[in-house]
Specification:
This protein is an alpha/beta fold and 212 residues long. Among the domains are: 1-65; 132-211, Sandwich (Immunoglobulin-like), CATH 2.60.40. It has one helix spanning 2-44; strands spanning 132-137, 142-143, 146-149, 154-159, 168-169, 184-188, 193-198, 206-211. Strands 2-1-4-6 form a four-stranded mixed beta sheet, with no helix packed on it. A four-stranded mixed beta sheet has the order 3-8-7-5, with no helix packed on it. It is rod-shaped, with a radius of gyration of 91 Å. Mean pLDDT is 75; it is low at 38-57 and 61-79.
Length: 212
């Protein structure tokens, strides 16, 4: 491969030289008569200074194949020590608040013990036994004129006078007919209270009965 490249360069140089020679020859052919006339003129006029003729030389560029060597840059491994960031630990003082809750002392309230008060034993009440009482009507009066009896008792009125009498309640609770001598009238009291009565024939004859 290098041999071919070298021969190509040689051939290029030879070709360039041949081209220059051909060009010079052509130029010489076309410029020769003019040079002869000039020389003749120079001979005729020896005082004239010959004018220099500009010669144009054409240089052909020479193509030269220069082998190009491409160098591949080698990869260089560069070890870079990257500093590892150090984490700075800042200790922040922590304030701890301790809340102390004061518990009020528990006051134990002792409830008063219920004291049982002995209930007095109520003695059984003896219900009085009903009785029967006789009231005599004598000498224009009721005898006895006031009497107390238990409930359920019975009163008997008996007229001993020779004139008629009655036993009449002031409130209309009871009332006897006209009683002749030795006649009687009776009434049983079932309700408590004070009962007043009189003789309906003779005004001024009054009496009362209390029933318990």
């Amino acid at each position: 491969m290098n041999f071919l490249k070298k021969n190509k360069v040689v051939f290029s140089i030879v070709g360039a030289i041949l081209l220059i020679l051909v060009t010079a020859l052509i130029f010489y052919v076309f410029t020769r008569p003019k040079n002869d006339n000039t020389s003749n003129n120079n001979q005729l006029n020896p005082t004239e200074t010959p004018t220099p003729t500009d010669t144009v030389v054409m240089e052909m560029p020479t193509e030269t194949d220069t082998p190009t060597s491409t160098s591949t840059p080698s990869t260089t491994s560069t070890s870079t020590n990257t500093p590892i960031p150090t984490k700075k630990v800042t200790s922040t003082p922590t304030t701890t608040f301790v809340t102390v809750t004061q518990t009020p002392p528990i006051t134990q309230t002792i409830a008063p013990t219920a004291t049982s008060t002995p209930t007095p034993t109520q003695s059984p009440t003896t219900t009085p036994t009903p009785v029967t009482v006789t009231i005599n009507i004598q000498s224009m009066a009721f005898s006895p004129s006031s009497i107390t009896i238990p409930r359920g008792s019975t009163i008997i009125w008996k007229n001993l006078d020779g004139v008629p009498h009655t036993a009449t309640s002031n409130t209309g609770v009871f009332g006897s007919p006209s009683l002749s001598q030795n006649q009687t009238y009776s009434f049983t009291f079932t309700n408590s209270g004070v009962f007043q009565y009189h003789c309906a024939i003779h005004a001024g004859m009054n009496a009362s009965i209390t029933v318990q």
